[in-house]
Specification:
CATH class of one domain: Mainly Beta
Order of helices and strands: EEEH
Structural class: alpha+beta
Strand order of the largest sheet: 2-1-3
Length: 74
Amino acid sequence: MPTYQYACTACGHTFEQFQSFSEDALTVCPECDGKLRKVFSAAGVHFKGSGFYRTDSRTSSSSSSSSSSSSSAS
């Protein structure tokens, strides 16, 4: 089940709630009975560095190692 974060527009109370996708969003603050809003944040997945694309697996070191091994064989 996903975790949703809510914030009250009246008192500023923030909390997280486990809810299934089929459940309706919460609308009433449990602290002051004010109006709630969902808080959206950045995604939890960040693709940084090399290795995420097909072209990243082709490094220049592999081509230089094959040329160095052929020169050492001759």
